[in-house]
Amino acid sequence: MKKTIFLSFAFLILFACSPQNSKVLKKQIKPKASTSKKSNSKNYSDFVKKGTKTDNGLFKVHNNKDSYVYEIPKSLLNKDMLLVTRIKELPAGLGGGYVNAGSKINTQVIVWEHYKNKILLKVKSYNAIANDSLPIYKSVKANNLEPVIYAFDIKTQNPDSTAVLIDVTKFFSTDVKAISGLPSYYRRNYKVRRLDASRSFINSVKSYPENIEVVQDFTFDADAPPSNTSTNTISMRINQSMILLPENPMMPRIYDKRVGYFSIGNVDYSSEALKADSKRYIRRWRLEPKDWAAYNRGELVEPVKPIVYYLDPATPKKLRKYIKQGVDDWAKVFETAGFKNAIMAKMPPTKEEDPEFSMEDVRYSSIRYVASTTRNAVGPSVSDPRTGEILESDIIWYHNHLRSYRNRYLLETGAANPSARTLNTPDEEIGDMMRMVIAHEVGHALGLPHNMAASYAYDTEDLRNGDFTQKNGIAATIMDYARYNYVAQPGDKNIRFIRQLGPYDHYAINWGYRKIPSAKKPADEVATLDKWIADKADNPIYRFGGQRFDPSAQTEGIGNDQVKSSTYGVKNLKIVAKNLPNWTSNQTNNYEDLSELYGELLSVWGRYVGHVAGNIGGVYEFNKKPSQSGGIYVPVSKNKQKEAMQWLQENVFKTQDWLLSKNILNKIDEAGYIARFGNYQNRYLRSILSTRTLNRMIDAEVIQNNNYAVVDMISDLRKGIFSETNATKNVDVYRRNLQKYFIGRMKSLMEDKSVQNTDIPSIVRGELSTLKYQLNAASKRAVNKITKYHYIDALAMVNNILDPK
What we know:
The protein has 805 residues and is an alpha+beta fold. A hairpin with a 2-residue loop joins strand 5 (104-115) and strand 6 (118-124). The longest helix is centred in the C-terminal third of the chain and has 22 residues, at 562-583.
């Protein structure tokens, strides 16, 4: 029986193996149907087939209808790349008005890493570093584990096995927090519940030689959206830029806070010091001379790769020359650093000239002209976090921005400048303003932050001198917010009213960009860089100052005497306020411009007030190294602070009738004038009586003799604000409200737990006790009923603070 079975089995084998019968067997034996619902394809042709749209670039991007596949060369695995998340378009009011289209939300270094049958997208940090040849490198790696953003299945390889394919559709169409345009604080503020997948999609994916650009349209369900609240919806357009970082990193330049540069930082554990070494490098473009020998001889040399900005073709033709000039103005500045033709602006090539050109390509920087009602311009850039090298920049100009400049020009210079007394500012003057705004934003894109101390370098009286202003402008740098010369008075001749580049710009660009040929590593440059600073250290023109507590580094101010500058400014504003209807509504036969400009006039006045108020409790900051003499922090003198206090009493806390003209107010709104003016008074009263200001004044006693003591300052403030109590005099509604606010602010200081163990509550109690007797006496001799009631009410408020029971 077994033999029979064996023979039969052998016969079947022979039959199957014979050439004549193999085809018969194939027909008769059918393969079993697959039990899985869908086969897992592993063939390249399943992803790249007829109808697939392929975009060649850094990675090949394959698009099959609504799915996107990256073909990642294995040579680019583990290579550092920069992932920049920007808002491309946004709803009105997002971020409280401080976020614009083009704003960066996140910047992170990423790597694509092969792990088993997956590709991991990981975030790589350069916050902690060490030389990979040192033993401590292992500890740095172990204590800084790189997070995985996403894990992709490897679908297949390309035909020659040099690249892997992954599907990125889900990654870019779902709510991945690491690349979301809505950070956690936005989600909390707007009560975002979820991303609605049915209303979200990938808009486009484009690959360029050094970058890939992804545009996502996202719609979120939100219970408190910033605008269109009835929709419970936030819709945004997000741009993801993935940029390959340079294979050979640029040698960085060590940051020095005495010269203004944006910077990047890390902690280096390779240091032989007793602690990890914190390092910080400036952000700058890589400029290398074509001819090193000529450069070293001091000749002007062209860079290997100049900085080129391409103008948006959407830019109105009549404005193009001004934008171009705003870029080209920096070419002369770079000559100070030894480079000629280092920076320029061009119109982009046409499709016929270069069909592959795109301003989304990271190799090209641009100036975008955005049709938006936003009044702003921004100069962002993208830099290598390893070295600070700026890789590309896209400056954005918003269409309505010139309206702000027209308004400011009229308000700040109209008294002394006849051509500013119109809503139709001459084209050349508008063009000059635009040119300087572009120059300012280019400065940011070159690595320069705001330098608010530069306007303090010039004597206030020099700003009334035509020859001086034509030669030097109104501030030592274009990077200050010193837009207009509001100091010049009617009758002053040949005045330059609009800002321009200045000597600090030449100094800063030379310090940041001049090559130091003998240096092989960043530390080798420090002695030379220090000498360049030391050579200019005693000249205020070359000082850098950040805007914080320093009254000499305030935004929008000009001149080295804020009291004098603001006096001139207010004098001019009084002339403008008187003529405002004639320059606006009388010309247009409507009140829209009058209303808008009156509101901005209040803001201009408020800035002049702020410049003076900053002196009270102010501290000058002079950044130095120990090799330089003198202190870094120097409190404002007592006399200067008392002068500021007297100015505020006369120009702010007293009712400013010139700002409250019935001829304007009864044309622009039915109510709200009292509260509007009061808000400005209260703002600066609050600033003076802030705990930060008071604590600085108390601390000043330690490092300065004869300082303006807090007890004297609050006493002076009380005497001025309640001056009516010393005479038989009515108190107008503005003063009544201000006096109540003063009492309320004193109450807040009494209850502030952060100052309970300081002199502040004692001083407040003493001043309120004095005020109590003033109010009690004044209430008995008040002239009219409302003044009497006000004093009685104010007295009750004081009594309640002093004795809450």
